[in-house]
Structures are given as structure tokens and as C-alpha cells.
Amino acid sequence: MFKNIDLFNQAFFFAPIGMSIVSLEGKWIKVNHALTKITGYTEDELLTTNFQALTYPKDLDTDLSYTQELVEGKRDSFEMEKRYVHKSGKIVWVLLSVSIVREGNKPLFLISQIQDITDRKNSERILKQMAHYDFLTQLPNRRLFEERLNHAIESANFNKGLVAVLYLDLDGFKQINDTFGHDLGDFLLKEVASRLTACMGSKDSVARLAGDEFTILLPETTIDNAKHVAERIIDTLSNKVSVQDVVISITPSIGIAFCDDFNMDVRNLLKYADGAMYQAKQNGKNNYQVSQNR
């Protein structure tokens, strides 16, 4: 028996993942070396506190709810991804697996296995960033913009609101790119992205679709406000850009389309805004036009 206990202790303390025995109230009773590495706290420090103190606040309610269900016998175990606040202050993602030990019907304590998944979560975040954001400008790309637009249309239909899309193309950008090179062109696109973002309200969204084409989503707006945003964009882009001893003037052609129709979809709304943008080109550029399609 003592040999078995000794083997258990060795397996517990030297396990490659975090292990802990926890009281029903959340106090750590026993912790292993791997858990001290995950949290940054020594064994003695951990044994004077509880898991609640180290849990990231937004994850605590879920953790406590699952734990309570364990104690009440509503489940035998649970698994969740959660965050701890490391002693250094950084956030550590873990995969937490918890089971309960009982004597008859009486709950005694919890056994937790804690695996550090921070690297995996960071990789997932990077992949999500690559899938939904433009690499050059860090703005949302077409995919994310269309998702947001679809959500805005659904919300507007429910709330009987108005959604506007502004479709923007930089006048003469290809000539600038061909004349001064792609490095300067890239700098210019990033500058435009920054200026457009500065024109947005808290609920608005700007995206880069491709090349020198940008779109703006105004999810809760009015016709007058959408026109005002277009005027503000034209004004902010009128300030010349100085780079590499070159001074460049930027002007946009902007098309605006509105959605207040239950049958309107993302594809048609973008098509109407794009069509209005070409009308702006034909009307001398550096202006905006409103689509007549509603």
C-alpha cells in the first residue's frame, strides 16, 4: 500500500502537465512542479491561495458553475479552456480537466489536470488574423467585411433600421504605383487605411477589399449621416501625403448604397455601392454618388 502511495506521489509531482488536488471551495491542497511552471508561483505560494484568485475574471463564472455541478452530482467531470493570470501578469491559456472524488455520496475533493495551451491559442489567433484581415493594412478583408455586413443587414431587418455601404476607389492609384513603385504604393495604402479608420464611428467598420478598393459599413445610420461620412473621407484624404521626398495628392471616388429592404443581400448591396462608385468616377472623380437602387 505504501509503495502504491509512493508511486502515485512520484507520478503526480513529476507529471508533464499541471496536476492539483483542490478542496471543494477551490483551495489548492496539493500541486505539482508543472503547475508551478504554468502559473509562475512556487508550491508554497499556490498552497496559500485558491484557483479563483488566479483565474482570468471573464472565465471565473463558467469555472465556478461547472465546479458547483460537480459538487451537486450533476456531472462526474468537466473540461474547459480557460485563462490563468501568471505571476508576471501575462495571460496563460490552459486546458482544464476536473473530476471529483467521493466517499459514497459525499464529495471530498477535486482532481485537476492543467495543460498549457498558450502556444496553440496564439497560433489559432494568428491564423484567424490571416483569414480575416488584410496583411498590408491590418484592416478587415472581404470575408470579414461580408460577415459583418450580413449581420448588420439581419439586425436592421429586425430593428427596421438603415444600413449603408460606402465603396471607395482611389483615383489614379495605378499610375502612382507605376510611377513611384510598389513600396510607395503600399505606404500610401496604409496611410489611407489609417485616415479612413479615423473617420469611423464606434460601430462602423472599414475594410480593404482588394488593391485600392475599400469599403465602409455604417450599420446603424441615416442617409444624411452616410453622406456626411463620405464628405469627411473626401476631406481627410485631401491632405497630401509626403513620403521619400515625394508629395502625393489622393482623391477618392465613393459610391453609397443603402439597405432598408428585407430582401436585400450582401452581394447586391455591394454591387449597388460599386455601381455608384463608378458613377462618381464618371462625374469627375473626387466625389460621392448615391445608388438609386434600394
Automatic annotation (TrEMBL):
User: What InterPro entries does this protein map onto?
Assistant: Biofilm_reg_signaling (IPR052155), GGDEF_dom (IPR000160), Nucleotide_cyclase (IPR029787), PAC (IPR001610), PAS (IPR000014), PAS-assoc_C (IPR000700), PAS-like_dom_sf (IPR035965), PAS_fold_3 (IPR013655)
Q: Where is the PAC domain?
A: 78-129
Pfam families of this UniProt entry?
Answer: GGDEF, PAS_3
User: Which PROSITE patterns has this protein been placed in?
Assistant: GGDEF, PAC, PAS
Domain PAS span(s) in chain numbering: 21-74
Ranges of residues in domain GGDEF: 161-293
Q: SUPFAM superfamilies per the record? A: Nucleotide cyclase (SSF55073), PYP-like sensor domain (PAS domain) (SSF55785)
PANTHER family for this protein: BIOFILM ARCHITECTURE MAINTENANCE PROTEIN MBAA, DIGUANYLATE CYCLASE DGCP
Q: What is this protein called?
A: PAS domain S-box-containing protein/diguanylate cyclase (GGDEF)-like protein
Query: What is the protein's species of origin?
Result: Cytobacillus firmus (Bacillus firmus)
